[in-house]
């Protein structure tokens, strides 16, 4: 009996609120007195680190993890608009990354520290816990396959065919033909969240999206 080959893409998206937020900020100063610049940066870094350490409880939060880079000190000699080289300007900075499990505490702490002299907020990376992400990725892939099966069945019915059996299921672009991903997912699932930083710091994140895409081939008769 002749068979018709049906190739489809299955899709499913999970949307889930962010469970973790990692703040990246830089503490530092610049000026003509190198010793003063280093001292002010050291004092600011010590104050910020002390606040973070007081909130750091890995098992319960509100801070579950944090890190601090080594302090950087450098100098530059700028030029004015007339092409004249100006005196040395000394710079000192150190970066802190702080992960919060309590997003309300994240917002309140950040609103306070971001207005301090010498603090520059780089952004916030919103994320899910490993357990939640693993569960949602597995479920979204399962439902994407179900979506592919339903699509293939609908196409077969439209053609007057009643028997449908799977031939292959793969991540997008891996069926060995001209099939290509229709999104940036690349593999079978992708996590996507709203970008942080920019002109306005987003302290209330949009939901994180877990996207699953599969390509599947069926024989229908």
Based on the model shown, name its key terms.
alpha+beta; five-stranded antiparallel β-sheet; 3 helices; 9 strands; 28% helix
Description:
By secondary structure, the protein is α+β, with helices and mostly antiparallel strands. It is 28% helix and 37% strand. It has three helices and nine strands; from the N terminus they run E-E-H-E-E-E-H-E-H-E-E-E. The strands form two sheets. Strands 2, 3, 4, 5 and 6 form a five-stranded antiparallel sheet that branches. Strands 1, 7, 8 and 9 form a four-stranded antiparallel sheet that branches. It is elongated, with a radius of gyration of 26 Å. About 3% of the residues have low confidence.
Brief account:
The chain is of the alpha+beta class and 221 residues long. Helix content is 28%, strand content 37%.
Mean pLDDT: 89
Describe the sheet with the most strands.
Answer: 5 strands, antiparallel
- Report the principal-axis shape: elongated
Please provide the ordered H/E string of secondary-structure elements: EEHEEEHEHEEE
Structure annotation, total helices: 3
Radius of gyration: 26 Å
Please give the alpha-carbon distance between the first and last residues: 7 Å
Secondary structure: helix percent: 25-40%
The overall strand count is 9
**Helix/strand class:** alpha+beta
